[in-house]
Amino acid sequence: MQKFRRVFEGIAKAGQSTDLNDFYTELFITQRVSGEVNKEHEVSLIETASRKPAKEETPIKLEDIFKPLPGQDQPSRTIMTTGVAGIGKTILTHKFTLDWAEGKANHDIHFTLPFTFRELNLLKEKEFSLMELLHHFFIQTKGIRRYDRFQVVIILDGLDECRLPLDFQNNPIWTNVTKSTSVDILLTNLIRGDLLPSARIWITTRPAAANQIPAECVDIVTEVRGFTDPQKEEYFRKRFREEPLASTIISHIKTSRSLHIIRGQQRLGFP
C-alpha cells in the first residue's frame, strides 16, 4: 500500500504525489482476438483503436483479469497485456496490487509480487535461486519457503524494456526453486510454467515486443485501449475538481479530433 498508493505526476522528483485512488479511472481492456503481433506503428494503432466502437468488444474489468473466461473452468495462468506507450499498463498493475493490498479485490490471492523488467535488467550478470530472487525484492517474504502452498501472482511489467535474452529455445528446464542459476533461466522457466507452476503470471508490454514470449506460453492476451469517451470525461472530472474548469477542458478537447483521440490513449495521471 505504501509503495503504490502515491503516484508522482510530471517529473518524479519535482512533481507532487497524488493518491492513486483519487484519480484512477477504469481503462478499457479487451481480449485480443488474435495472438499475432501487430507490427503497425503505434501512432497507427492509436488511430485504428479510436475507430473501433467499444460496444463491439467485451470489456474485462481489472479485478477480473485472472478470472475464468466464459467457457473456461479454471483461471488463466499466464496473461499478457499489450498497449501502446503511455496507455496506462503500469498504472493498471499498480492499481491491481493496491486494491489487493487494501482487501478490495482478489481475496483468494495470498501474495502479489510486482517486478519490472527495468529492475531485473540490473541482475543480468548475477545468479539467484527463485527463492533468493523473491527475497531480494521482497524482504518480508524471507520466512516463506513453500510458495506452492499459496496462491501467488507475479507481475512482470514492461517486457519492451527487457534487456535479458529470454532464450526460451535454448535455456534448460529448471524446476528447483532453491538452486541458483541466471535470472534469464529463472524467468523463462517461470513464464512457461516449469518453475512454480501454481503461480499466476501477468506480463505487460508494448505490442512490438510481445513476440519475445512464445505464444504457447501465454494463455490469454488482453489489450489496453485507453479511455472510452465517458471514461475520458470521468477522468478529467476527477483530475480537475473545479467543475467549470473540468467542463471547459472537456469541451476544448472535444473540438479537436486528434487531441480527443490522444487523450483516450494518454498516460493515466500524467496530463
Could you list some keywords that capture this structure?
alpha/beta, Rossmann fold, globular, 271 residues
Description:
This protein has 271 residues and is of the alpha/beta class. It has one domain (25-226): 3-Layer(aba) Sandwich (Rossmann fold). Helix content is 30%, strand content 16%. It is built from 9 helices and 10 strands. Strands 3-10-4-9-7-5 form a 6-stranded mixed sheet, with helices on both faces. The longest helix is centred in the middle third of the chain and has 13 residues, at 89-101. The radius of gyration is 19 Å and the shape is globular. The protein starts with 5 loop residues before the first strand and ends in a 6-residue tail after the last helix. Mean pLDDT is 83; it is low at 265-271. Residues 77-209 form the NACHT domain.
How would you sum up this structure in a few lines?
With about 270 residues, this protein is α/β, with parallel strands linked by helices. The chain has 9 helices and 10 strands.
Unreliable stretches: 265-271
The number of helices is 9
Shape: globular
Structural class: alpha/beta
Round the mean pLDDT to the nearest integer and report it: 83
Q: How many strand segments? A: 10
- The CATH topology label is Rossmann fold
Q: Measured on Cα atoms, how large is the radius of gyration?
A: 19 Å
β-sheet strand percentage: 15-25%
Largest sheet: 6 strands, mixed
What is the C-level CATH assignment? Alpha Beta
Q: What is the helical fraction, as a range of percent? A: 25-40%
Distance between the termini: 24 Å
CATH architecture: 3-Layer(aba) Sandwich
Domain NACHT: 77-209
Protein name: NACHT domain-containing protein
Keywords: Leucine-rich repeat, Repeat
Pfam families: FISNA, NACHT
